[in-house]
């Protein structure tokens, strides 16, 4: 699964990197060293005039849901079952997004007494896009909540010793295709694979990252 990540790059660089034509929320942006479910996360969608960037609440609330609390159970979507699960089937076909990150955390669960956190990044230090789905849900008082989920796949060789799942990280050449509503299902499914381990690295970080309240630069320092 993917339950925490970071986004600390300058806002202007993110806009440039993802070729954003319309951006919202510049005044709300700040470096986040411990992004967690339930928070609003910076995401990219395809607009009528190009890429749009804004915030989606992490934890998908399907448009047909009776209670928004379902979002806490839908922070991740398994790539293998996107076309079978009612919560993900329609968003996969119509409402795909990029979730912007520069690293993600995962915990080694082999020691039941102690969960060791690790930070996974690109060797280049570059930003990357995680494949996501989004949906909108309307409350009884007509407020609209836009939410999202992170798609996961089986672990690559780098990740396997720590966990059996990892987020789907898209190649830059696939990002535009992922957002394009005309991309065929077969092509979309091709993208949902483990990322090249040769381009990634990881290292142990402080267990302080376990607590969502902790959010500071020291969380990403190598132990």
UniProtKB/TrEMBL annotation:
Which Pfam families has this protein been placed in?
SRAP
- Tell me the InterPro entries matching this sequence: SRAP, SRAP-like
**Membrane-spanning parts:** none
Which top class of enzyme applies to this chain? hydrolase
As recorded in UniProt, its EC number(s) are 3.4.-.-
GO molecular-function annotation terms? Answer: hydrolase activity
List, alphabetically, the Gene3D superfamilies matched: SOS response associated peptidase-like
Q: Which UniProt keywords apply?
A: Covalent protein-DNA linkage, DNA damage, DNA-binding, Hydrolase, Lyase, Protease
Asked if DNA-binding is a keyword of the record, the answer is: yes
Where does the signal peptide begin and end? none
Which top-level group of life is the source organism from? Bacteria
Q: Which family does it belong to?
A: Belongs to the SOS response-associated peptidase family.
Q: State what protein this is by name.
A: Abasic site processing protein
Organism source for this protein?
Answer: Sporolactobacillus shoreicorticis
């Amino acid at each position: 699964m993917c339950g925490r990540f970071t986004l600390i790059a300058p806002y202007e660089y993110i806009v440039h990197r993802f070729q954003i034509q319309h951006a919202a929320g510049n005044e709300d942006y700040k470096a986040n060293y411990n992004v967690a479910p339930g928070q609003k996360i910076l995401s990219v969608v395809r607009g009528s005039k190009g890429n749009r960037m804004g915030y989606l609440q992490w934890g998908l609330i399907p448009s047909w849901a009776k209670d928004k609390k379902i979002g806490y159970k839908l922070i991740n979507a398994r790539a293998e079952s996107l076309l079978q699960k009612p919560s993900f089937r329609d968003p996969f076909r119509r409402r795909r997004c990029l979730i912007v990150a520069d690293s993600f955390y995962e915990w080694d669960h082999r020691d039941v007494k102690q969960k060791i956190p690790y930070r996974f990044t690109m060797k280049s230090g570059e930003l990357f896009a995680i494949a996501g789905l989004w949906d909108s849900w309307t409350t009884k008082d007509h407020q609209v909540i836009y939410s999202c989920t992170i798609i996961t796949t089986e672990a690559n060789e780098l990740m396997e010793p720590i966990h059996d799942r990892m987020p789907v990280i898209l190649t830059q050449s696939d990002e535009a295709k992922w957002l394009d509503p005309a991309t065929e299902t077969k092509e979309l499914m091709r993208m949902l694979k483990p990322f090249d381990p040769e381009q990634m690295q990881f290292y142990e970080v402080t267990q302080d990252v376990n607590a969502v309240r902790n959010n500071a630069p020291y969380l990403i320092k190598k132990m």
